[in-house]
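=== Discrete structure encoding ===
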Amino acid sequence: MSAPLLEVENLSVEYVTEARTVRAVDRVGFTVGEGEVFGLAGESGCGKSTIANAILRLLRDPAVIAGGAIRFRGADVLGLDAEELRAFRWRQVAMVFQSAMNSLNPVLTIGDQIADIYTTHEGVSRKVGLRRGAELLDLVGIPHDRLRSYPHQLSGGMRQRVVIAMATALRPPLLIMDEPTTALDVVVQQEIMAQIRDLQRELGFAILFITHDMSLMVELSDRMAVMYAGRFVETASALTIFEQPRHPYTSALMNAFPPMSGPRTRLKGLGEGVRFHDIPDLALVGPGHWAAPVDGDAPLTEVTR
């Protein structure tokens, strides 16, 4: 069996202030294999994006990595110096951030922003960078003349496609996608998801896919982890978690989406103030299926939608 592409081991991230220290990520561990899609699901504020930023060492004060290890193809990411880190980002691991509009520079054309990737990382001329930028836009179905457009002149879906294209510019073996369909309508969302699947099949990169939408997660991921309050509460194949969730929080997260058609159904959510204190380490509950043990049934409340 080949070694994992990415290994995250006992990672802890804290936000340190004069008033107090908050542990946002608490001893989290997972691997991502070559060409695999690993999903990371959980509610807003549970620590998903903090993990992504830690992998690329993009954390800003007051966030600090308090413990653990991150390895990419066996190399210690936390030990990279500034020059090595510059080479690591974008070429080895690239990231698609939550808001495409905020990821793009509003005063530069799309062409200039794409060309900058090639001139900076590969030392080619701007002319060559623009030509390769046109090839990138071909990959995501955007006309070449959009190289001359500014971000505000594109629709939300087109901006997201541009950001995804830019992330694949140097053919990195791993893409981190942090809520890549946020703020898009459901039709455009499905188009973007189809685009991601097509690109992955064509280019063969692995994906760390971050979202709170369990339906998207199951649709795209091979394996996944469910995160709550800085810790993993369950991890298994996406299909296993979809069919046999073992932790109450996983079930509650999956039941948070009302059906689009049919009769009204009774949804179950966590009761007000419910929190799984002192989440224990994951235990093996089935083949490749790990879940945090829960003492008794977590309190649930029925809600009609």
In short: DSSP finds ten helices and 14 strands in the chain. Confidence is low (pLDDT under 50) at residues 296-305. The chain has two domains: 6-92+172-304, 102-171. Residues 37 and 207 are 5 Å apart (CA to CA).
